[in-house]
Every structure is written in C-alpha cells, then in structure tokens.
Write a sequence for this structure.
C-alpha cells in the first residue's frame, strides 16, 4: 500500500500528517500534472479521497472517488470485495506467435 498527497501545502502538510498518524505505508506527494496523468482524469474537477486498486502489472483496475459508495459506508467490506475480485483475475493469455509461411506449407 502506498499513498500520495495532492495537497497544495505539499511536503509541510505531508510531514504533519506523518507525525500525527504515523502510517505504516509509504506516502509521497504529486503535483496536479502527475496525478492527472496517473489517474487519467483529464481537465475535470477531482474529489478526494481517491482510491486506486492497481494490479501487479501497473494497470488501474478499480478507482473510487469522493462520494463513491466504496468510500462512504462499510468501507472495509467494499474494499475487501474489490481486492478479492482483483486477486482472482486471471491474466490474459499470451497471443500465439503468427504462423510462418514454412509452417503453413507443412
């Protein structure tokens, strides 16, 4: 688990949060352009908090924003269900190599 702040207060706010809550996961900071590229938001208003579930290949598989039910009521149940679903996804099978002309003649 990792976290990132997009707070305009930047590193000062982040240091205060870490001192107050002593989280057991890594936290960094992102500027507007970085988070917009990462989250693929485009030029629309965003809400916080944001939650991204990312698979082991780096693909965002689930995303919840602000008032999404996953973030409002019974968060733990919703999050566990989403993580369990993600853990049971099977990766796409690799494509078979294209047949060569020599293989076609046999």
């Amino acid at each position: 688990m990792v976290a990132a702040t997009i707070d305009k207060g930047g590193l000062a706010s982040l240091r205060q949060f870490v001192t107050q809550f002593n989280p057991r996961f890594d936290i960094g900071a992102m500027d507007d352009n970085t988070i917009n590229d990462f989250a693929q938001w485009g030029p629309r208003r965003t809400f916080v908090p944001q939650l991204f579930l990312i698979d082991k290949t780096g693909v965002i598989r689930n995303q919840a924003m602000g008032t999404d039910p996953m973030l409002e009521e019974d968060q733990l149940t919703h999050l566990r269900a989403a993580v369990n679903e993600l853990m049971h996804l099977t990766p796409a099978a690799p494509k078979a190599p294209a047949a060569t002309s020599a293989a076609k003649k046999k």
Strands lie at 2-5, 26-29, 50-54, 60-65.
